[in-house]
What does this fold into?
Amino acid sequence: MPRKREDRAKEKRIRPVKGINLDGEYVSPVRSYQDLTYENIKTELVCSRYTQLLVSLTIIGLFLRFYNLGFNSLWLDEATTHHFAKLSFIEIWELTAGGEYNPPLFHWVEHFMLFFGNSEVILRFIPAFLGILTIPLFYFIGREFLDRNTGILAAAILTFSPFHIFYSQDARAYSMMLFFISLALLFYLVATRLNETKYWILFSIFSALAFWTHFYSMIIIAILIIFAIIINARKIKGHVFETKPLLLSIAAFVLLCLPLIIVTIRLFFIRTSGQPTYGIQGFGIITESIQQFSGYNVYSAVIFLILLIIGFLQIFKTEKIKFFLFTSIIILSFIVSWALSYKMPMIPRYLIFLLPIFYIGVAAGFRPFCQALNNRWLIYLLIAVLILIATPFMSSYYSGFSKEDWRGFSKNIESMTKEGDFVVVAPGYNTLPLNYYYSNTTDNTVEFDANTKNDLEKISLSKGNSSVFIVITSDIFAADPGGGTIQYLNEHAKFLGQNTGINLFKLN
It folds into this structure.
C-alpha cells in the first residue's frame, strides 16, 4: 500500500491544467531530474509553450535586473555592505555575534565578489543574478501548488514586479533571502506530498541558508515547520516512523543554524528593548507592504488584493490544507510584523519572503477566467496587462535616480570646498556612502562626524577661519529623534540645496 500511494503522488507532479492548456496534447517527458537528458530538454524547448514562455520571461527578467545596474550610486545600506565585505570571514561573524543585526552569509558572498572589483555592478551582481533565478522557481512553486497556469502567471508577476526589480538591483540580502526561501518552499511542498527524506532535508538546508541570510526569514520558516508538525500530529503519536523525514529535517535545520540561533535570541532582546526610531508602525506596515508588493501603486494594490482573495477562494475549493498553509503564512507574518513594529524598526522589504505566497495567490485569482474562457491567448493577454501595470514604474525607474546620488553629491562638495574647509557628515554613519565616492584627503578638507546638536557646537567652536559644510539626510531623525540638530542648523546655518534627499548646509 505505501508504495502505491507514493506512485500515485509521483504521477501528480505535473498537474493537469483545467481550462486553458498551452501545451495542448503535448505531454512533457521530464517528470523528475533523472529525465533531464539533452534530447528531453530539446523536446521540451521545442514543444512546450510553458517552457518557451518561462524561458522568455527569464530572459526578460535578466534584462530588467541587469539593465543600468550601476546607474544609481550606493546608498547607505549598500555602502554598509561594502564596508562589511572588506572584512575577513571571522571579522564578519564577530560583528554579527557582537550585535550587528544582519547574519553573515550575504557579506561572506560579497567578500568573494570583491576579488572582481568594488564597483556598484560587482556589489549588485549577486542580488541581480539570484533575482533572475527566482523567476523559474515561482513557476515551479505555482505548478506544484496548483497548476502550470498558476505557475507561469506567478513567474510573470515576479518578472515585472517593480518591488522585486528594485531589490534585485540593491546590494543587500533581500534578493538572496527570497531565492533561498523560494527553494525551501518548493521542496517543502514536494516533501509534504511525497514525505521523502531527501526533500525534507533539502527544505531544511535552504531554510538554513535563508536564515543565515536574513534573520526575519525565521518567521516563515517557523510557520512552515509548525504547520507540518500540526498536520503530522497524529502520525507523531502513533506512527513515528512515518514522520522520521520531518523530524530529521527539523533536527538538521537546528544543527545547521545553532550558532546563529543563540546569537539571534540575544539580539532579539537587544533590538526590542527600546522604541524604534525609524520604520513603519502598526497597521501601516501591512498596507504599505501590500502596496509595494503590488507595484508601489494604490490602484494596482486594490486589483492585486481582489485577485488574492479570489485566488485563495479557488485554492480553498481544491486544496484546503494548502489554503490554510498559505493564509496562515500571510496572516501570521503580518500579525507578527504589526506587533514587532512597536518594538523594532519594520520596513516592507523585510517581508520580501511573502512574495511567493502573495504572487501565487494573485495568479490563482485568474483561475476562474482561465477555466471559463478556454483560449490560450488569455494567458498572453494577462501577461501583457502585467507589463502595462509595471510600465509607469519602469519608465521612471530606469530614467532617473531611485536612490541617493552620493556620486553626484561628492562632485558638488569637491567643487565648493577649498583647502582646510570642514566637511561634517550627519548622522556620522553617512560617511560610508559619501566616502565611497569622496576623499577628504584628495580634496584637502577635514572630515567630521556629527549626530547631535552638541557635536555641531563643538565643531563650530574649533573651525577658526575655515568654512564648515554640513552633509545631512533624513536619517538624522533616527540618530537624533529630538530634532536638536535640525533646529541648530535652522538657526546657525545657510541651506545650500539638496540632491536626491542629501542636504547641504554651510555654517554662518
Notes: The beta strands are 422-426, 446-449, 468-472, 493-499, 502-507.
